[in-house]
Automatic annotation (TrEMBL):
Protein origin, superkingdom: Bacteria
NCBIfam families: cbbA, PRK09195.1, PRK12737.1
Record's cofactor remark: Binds 2 Zn(2+) ions per subunit. One is catalytic and the other provides a structural contribution.
InterPro entries: Aldolase_TIM, Class_II_FBP_aldolase, FBA_II
Keyword line: Metal-binding, Zinc
Residues the record marks as active site: D81
Cited SUPFAM superfamilies: Aldolase (SSF51569)
Cofactor: Zn(2+)
Binding annotation for Zn(2+) 1: H82, H179, H207
GO BP field: carbohydrate metabolic process
UniProt-recorded name of the protein: Tagatose-bisphosphate aldolase subunit GatY
């Protein structure tokens, strides 16, 4: 029942909205974003980093996502987020994952191309689609921390060459967003995004959307981003909801009670983000 990202992102590209990619970590967070998407009739991408796979187990995440897709009549994609190795991706492809990201953006251009190309060849044999990244995002994803001076924006001409030589299905661009929240309001390079969009035809992906003002995210969507990645802004309400509930109910020891509250708080934000992406009613 899980699908790859191709049709989903192509439709979004044609109709000028973005599919939200929400980072999930376990049963509860998967249920939460799926419930929000079902309520709003939105397609949804469940994004799992290597850290999440270590925490929850690849097979568990795969099975839970598969079940979510089976039980609900909206398009649901399980997507590997920021995977750095060929081996980890192949492991998930064998389990039935249909959408993957190979992030070799830390490597030099030629190495990025060669590993991405290898992943594309294998993934396509499994009917899976591949996202890759060119340029570097600041901030933290799992345990990898990139600081400002190491960041590099995506070069539009190199993006053309990268897409042509790798055969990648979608491209994550670095235009000034960062993983996590921002110390001050981020300045996005819309001109660069426009140039990339003019030159490259595959769907473009905006990472690091947490903390970016809604109007800026929507401008990126207008300018051609068709997948918007959101992690931190969903972690916050889940954690604060849980913390608040346990503080107010110090005797509570039933996970079904406190998890329910955490899920509700997270769901409210997921709904907001779906509305921001313009994907409501597109399922
Ligand atoms: P944020 O945590 O800033 O939302 O970034 C999410 C992301 O890019 C996941 O790949
Ligand atoms: Zn990211
Ligand atoms: Na961010």
């Amino acid at each position: 029942y899980l699908m790859n990202s191709k049709d989903l992102l192509r439709k979004a590209q044609q109709e000028r909205y973005a599919v939200p990619a929400f980072n999930i970590h376990n049963l509860e967070t998967i249920q939460t974003v799926v419930e929000a998407a079902v309520e709003l009739r939105s397609p949804v991408i469940l994004a799992a980093t290597p850290g999440t796979m270590d925490f929850a187990g690849r097979a568990y995440i795969q099975a839970i996502a598969e079940t979510a897709a089976k039980l609900n009549d909206i398009p649901i994609v399980l997507h590997l987020d920021h995977h750095h190795t060929y081996e980890s991706i192949e492991e998930s492809l064998k389990l039935g994952t249909k959408s993957v990201m190979i992030d070799a953006s830390q490597k030099n251009f030629e190495e990025n191309i060669s590993i991405t190309k290898m992943v594309v060849e294998t993934a396509h044999k499994y009917g899976a689609t591949v996202e890759a990244e060119l340029g570097k995002l600041v901030g933290q994803e799992d345990d990898l921390i990139i600081d400002d001076c190491d960041s590099a924006y995506t070069d539009p001409d190199l993006a053309v060459e990268f897409v042509e030589r790798t055969g990648v299905d979608s491209l994550a661009v670095a235009i000034g967003t960062a993983h996590g929240l921002y110390k001050s309001e981020p300045k996005l390079d819309f001109e660069r995004l426009t140039k990339i969009r003019e030159k490259v035809s595959v769907p473009l992906v905006l990472h690091g959307a947490s903390g970016v003002p809604k109007k800026d995210v929507q401008k990126c969507i207008e300018l051609g981003c068709t997948k918007v990645n959101i992690s931190t802004e969903l972690k916050i309400p889940f954690s604060s909801g849980l913390r608040e509930y346990l503080i107010n109910h110090p005797e509570e020891m039933d996970p079904r009670k406190y998890m329910k509250h955490a899920k509700q708080e997270m769901k409210n934000v997921a709904i907001e983000k779906i509305l921001m992406c313009g994907s409501a009613g597109k399922a």
